[in-house]
Amino acid sequence: MVIALIRRWFDPHEARDVGTAPDYRFSLANERTFLAWIRTGLALLGGGLAVAGFLPPLHIPHLREVLALAMMALGGFIALRAVDHWARSERAMRLGQPLPASRFPGVLALVVFLGAVLLLIAIILPGPMR
């Protein structure tokens, strides 16, 4: 199963040998969506590095490190999710099927919101004595 999934992501014949070619504009739109997700993942990776390197020590021990690692892990997960969604959408277009539904954008919005709330709370709390 994992091999088939990876093959669907990286083997161009896997995407092009099924169904018929859709209007190229739809394929390009699918690619732009993929690139937007990749940018989001990269932004979270960079944000995680910024939290780890530049956020001063917080009142709650190791919260800075937990936030940084969570942001970086989420960024990596988004990159994997992006390529999977791209491949599933491309296949659906070629087969004339409805595009795959996804709860991921809503889940991601909630996770980012909760992360922002945690960061706000961590910054508002008084820091350790310096």
Summarize the structure.
This protein is mainly alpha-helical and 130 residues long. It is 76% helix and 0% strand.
What tags apply to this protein structure?
single chain, 130 residues, mainly alpha, 5 helices, 76% helix, elongated
Description:
With 130 residues, the protein is mostly helical. It is elongated, with a radius of gyration of 19 Å. The mean pLDDT is 86. Helix 3 packs antiparallel against helix 4 (63-95). The chain has helices spanning 2-10, 12-16, 24-54, 63-95, 104-124.
Order of helices and strands: HHHHH
Largest beta sheet, briefly? none
Q: Which shape, going by the Cα principal axes?
A: elongated
Helix content: over 70%
- Gap between N and C termini, in Å? 53 Å
List segments where confidence is low: pLDDT < 50 over at least 5 consecutive residues. Answer: none
Assign the structural class, choosing from mainly alpha, mainly beta, alpha/beta, alpha+beta, or little secondary structure: mainly alpha
Tell me, rounded to a whole number, the average pLDDT: 86
Number of DSSP strand runs: 0
Individual helix count: 5
Radius of gyration: 19 Å
Q: How much strand content do the residues show?
A: under 5%
Topology, please?
Elements: H1 2-10, H2 12-16, H3 24-54, H4 63-95, H5 104-124
Helix pairs in contact: 3-4
